[in-house]
Design brief:
8-stranded antiparallel β-barrel; alpha+beta; Porin; 192 residues
Length: 192
Amino acid sequence: MRRFLTVVAVGLCLAAQPVLAATPAPSPAPVSAAVPLLPNAPPPTLEYAFSVQATLAPPVEAGNLDGGRRRFIQVTGGAAYGPMLSGTVLGGGGDWQTIRPGGLTDVEAHYFIKAADGTVIEVTNVGVRVASAEVTDKIARGEAVDPSAYYFRTTTRFGVVDGPLGWMRRAVFVARGIRKPDSVVIDFYVVR
């Protein structure tokens, strides 16, 4: 019985091939002259919010894992300063990195800021750093590198209670990082 059903199924598939081959593939809809080729809304702008300078412990190397060199760099403290936020970076968080072939480094930092008013803000910063192999090696060894030699961008989410800083949960942030030998500086921007 099983063999009979298999033969019937194969026969039906073979019989349908000429019909399927004769059916033309749907063509994409033509672009109408009435469809604008520009955005419908004004482009977003960036507004500088604040910076973080976080001090860092030496990296902990985990070895090659999932196609890249895994590292953990503990955040030991630091400061937040700028027009929209000031406070202290609390020690104990860190940056989980995967240095991949071709100059790509995946970064995911997770730490806390204690604002000047006492509010504790959870920071999750995910992004990439892209550089030549030579620059990547220098950064990994903790050497000073000109920030124009690499691309270091992230997107950020803040966890914060309702109150004067609750607006941080309701906005999109992007950031640019500058890696220094024993610290990192992150400039945060609100997307407007």
